[in-house]
Amino acid sequence: MSIVITAFERSPDGGKGLARDTRLRWALEEVGCPYEVRLLSFQAMKEPAHLALHPFGQIPTYEEGGLVLFESGAIVLHLAEQHAGLLPAEAKARARAISWMFAALNTVEPPILELANARLLERDAPWQQARLPLVAERVRVRLRQLSASLGDGEWLDADFSAGDLLMVSVLLRLRASGLLDEFPALAAYVARGEARPAYQRAFAAQLAVATGH
Amino acid sequence: MSIVITAFERSPDGGKGLARDTRLRWALEEVGCPYEVRLLSFQAMKEPAHLALHPFGQIPTYEEGGLVLFESGAIVLHLAEQHAGLLPAEAKARARAISWMFAALNTVEPPILELANARLLERDAPWQQARLPLVAERVRVRLRQLSASLGDGEWLDADFSAGDLLMVSVLLRLRASGLLDEFPALAAYVARGEARPAYQRAFAAQLAVATGH
């Protein structure tokens, strides 16, 4: 059954791997699933044909036979349920790994998105410089707790899982801010994620779209 | 196997049902699982005993035999996997319902959290009044798309699911802002969620903590 995902024709980050198709490419590479990519312009993302696949007009989407999914978290979970390699087989460890998936997306990513909005969307607002430290501190609270929980562990809960895949993907969005470097254990954790061959292949594939090679 | 969840001893909302234990109580009521509640002070939430259960020092947690979970989204998914009533049996419909769970928590809730931060945490900031309309507009973009997707449907995808449970819970946080009333189809959708007997029981149980009855 062939798999088709969607991605930006021109990613706003110019190929830094921060668009959400990278999470999905990484998961597909971890489980060894070949996939095709349909690239979309910003205009095409807001048209009825795409809105029928993704109610919020975003990327990525996932098509496999008659199944259409949206939301990168849901798609990573779907892949993890269908293939070995992204969730432990033991029931309790599996449920804990899923807790980490939701923690990445609903506890750690929201303040990171808020910081990105403060940096980019409110670039020209008169309050930007005064407000940025407040927002950065909300992110630091979460990073401090995450770093304490990770301790000197390699991954969040024993073996690498979909929880790590999403957490590393979310933390990567912080690199430009310098905040990640304030937490060496987290910076090393993110580097371990990036060093995985599956991540390397995913990163190269999204970069190839940006560079045209 | 007895189930124990944690909740605020004194919820910051004074019993309006907006704390995340309500989502969990609602799911437990939908699937007919009895549960016990351990109430926590703000101080106890930051102590090592609780941090061992919840790395981010929040509520709710979920304990069932030797299993300990955190993140309300993960716990609702765990309950939905173990019991009938929150996810469709058919594989494609089940995966779509899980897409809606992630959409509630990773696409719709982040701008709503940002609005709550702007209203509460930045109450005394000199930029608050000038900035609030910008943040409200980010929420409206999502509500407009969600309303278009819902159309005149009763629930997001055929029957009521864990996706609706989380989406209604997230939208309820908007009531005080008045934004929900700008989208009558969404206001009616939320009201349908609140009218479910399981929600009524969950709401009454969290209110009883606040009122002491």
TrEMBL record, chains A, B:
InterPro entries: Glutathione-S-Trfase_C-like, Glutathione-S-Trfase_C_sf, Glutathione_S-Trfase, Glutathione_S-Trfase_N, Thioredoxin-like_sf
Molecular function (Gene Ontology), one example: transferase activity
Pfam families hit by this protein: GST_N
Domain GST N-terminal: 8-87
Domain GST C-terminal: 90-213
Protein keywords: Transferase
The UniProt record lists the keyword ATP-binding: no
Entry annotated with the keyword Transferase: yes
PANTHER family, sorted: GLUTATHIONE S-TRANSFERASE GSTA, GLUTATHIONE S-TRANSFERASE-RELATED
Name listed for the protein in its UniProt record: Glutathione S-transferase
Gene source species: Solimonas aquatica
